[in-house]
Amino acid sequence: MTTTAALNAGERTARKDDPGAAPRKRRSGRLRRIGLPYLLLFPAILLELLVHLVPMVIGIVVSFKELTQFYIRDWDTAPWAGLDNYKLSVDFDAPVGEALLNSFFTTCLFTVLSVGLCWLLGVAAAIFMQESFRGRGFLRTVFLVPYALPVYAAVITWSFMFQRDNGLVNHVLHDQLGLTDSAPFWLIGDNSFIALLVVSVWKGWPFAFLIIMAGLQNIPKDIYEAAALDGAGVWQQIRRITLPALRPVNQVLVLVLFLWTFNDFNTPFVLFGKAAPEAADLISIHIYQSSFQTWNFGTGSAMSVLLLLFLLVVTGAYLWFTSRGRKATDV
């Protein structure tokens, strides 16, 4: 036993004297810390490749091909079109390019109005819900119902409500309140844009309400109490305290709402069907019609790539602008 103890003591002394033992341990620990996040992210990266990046690459390849209904079975044998599909899409003097440009402007207007109204309603409701009162929990639950409902079920319900002869909207506006001379059409014609906007805001503003309400929890109440003692009113507190403190939250919220709204396909497709009215011809449904109605997948893929490039440019410019403004504020 004495010999064994002496050997163990000698080994410990040798390890302590070895100058490379500690760096090797630190190096292995550092590699383990660096490798663990990548290992945990590997399933998400794999799913991202399979679900998003691989179809995206295939779509880019298809955009350079003359893929029509004659080559659906063997799409890789479709003739190479080069940039012809892109030239056709951006030729605004031709019918295809003109229709795409009108759809783009309609989508921009729809996105600005929908995102603005969603943000405004979400901020107003979240600020109102900050004060404790009886029934606040119930109202919070009710406000989140549109966000919790499945999109298809909610939009189908709105499509029934917008029916001209037996819909609830015309029953209230025309029959009960008498605000219109005749029962208007909501799912066709110019009013279709209003119907689409109403449905989009109705199902989108609870998300803004949820995010803003979470952001308000990080603002200390002592600041509001001090501002009230200094004579600041409610609007001054909102403008001087609430909105500046919510700037990081609003930056992310507006970007997410913009991307969701600009790419929204489910709402117009379920509300109007395969052929949306011209007044509500969003670019997502327009690309679908260009691909699956005319069976010209090459042109539809080119439009999708152009839309992707536009969103990348806008997102990059927005992130650069907001980060620059944040740095200027920090200074």
Structure description:
The chain is 75% helix and 0% strand. The protein contains 15 helices and no strands. The N and C termini lie far apart (68 Å). The chain has 331 residues and is mainly alpha-helical. It is globular.
Offer a concise description of the structure.
With 331 residues, the protein is mainly α. Helix content is 75%, strand content 0%. It has helices spanning 2-17, 21-63, 84-90, 95-128, 136-143, 145-148, 151-161, 168-176, 191-216, 221-229, 234-245, 247-262, 266-272, 283-293, 297-330.
List keywords for this structure.
15 helices, transmembrane, MetI-like_sf, ABC_transporter_permease, transmembrane helix, mainly alpha
User: Which sequence of SSEs, written as H and E, runs from N to C?
Assistant: HHHHHHHHHHHHHHH
Radius of gyration: 29 Å
- Shape, please? globular
**What are the low-pLDDT stretches, counting only 5+ consecutive residues below 50?**
none
Estimate the helix proportion, in percent. Answer: over 70%
Count the strands? 0
| Helical segment count | 15
Structural class: mainly alpha
> What about the largest sheet?
none
How far is it from the N-terminal to the C-terminal residue, by CA? 68 Å
Question: How do the helices and strands line up, and which of them pair or pack?
Answer:
Elements: H1 2-17, H2 21-63, H3 84-90, H4 95-128, H5 136-143, H6 145-148, H7 151-161, H8 168-176, H9 191-216, H10 221-229, H11 234-245, H12 247-262, H13 266-272, H14 283-293, H15 297-330
Helix pairs in contact: 2-15, 3-15, 4-9, 4-12, 7-13, 9-12, 12-15, 14-15
